[in-house]
Amino acid sequence: MIRIFDNNKSKSESKGKKKNIPVQYIDQKRIVDINKLLNRVKIDQKNERKRKIIFYSFGILGLSLLGTLITFLK
């Protein structure tokens, strides 16, 4: 009989035990402020625009440097 060990336990030991899943209570009421959620979405959109602008500017800079290097080598 071949035993395969995983996390210092054999497979025959781990078959008998079930994993405990934490229970989340749905009955608990949470107050959600829609203005906070909308502000977070607006901030995320602004950050995404900034990332895109930086990415495109580095791309254009790289292409222009490559073009300049090619013109100087000819």
Mean pLDDT: 81
- The overall strand count is 2
Derived from helix and strand composition plus strand pairing, the structural class reads: mainly alpha
Can you give the helix content as a percent range? 55-70%
What characteristics describe this protein?
74 residues, mainly alpha, 2 helices, elongated
What does this protein structure show overall?
With about 70 residues, the protein is mostly helical. About 60% of the residues lie in helices and about 5% in strands. The chain contains two helices and two strands, in the order E-E-H-H. The chain has helices at about 10-15, 35-74; strands spanning about 5, 10. A two-stranded antiparallel ribbon has the order 1-2. It is elongated and about 75 Å long. The termini are far apart.
Gist of the model:
With 74 residues, this protein is mainly alpha-helical. It contains 2 helices and 2 strands.
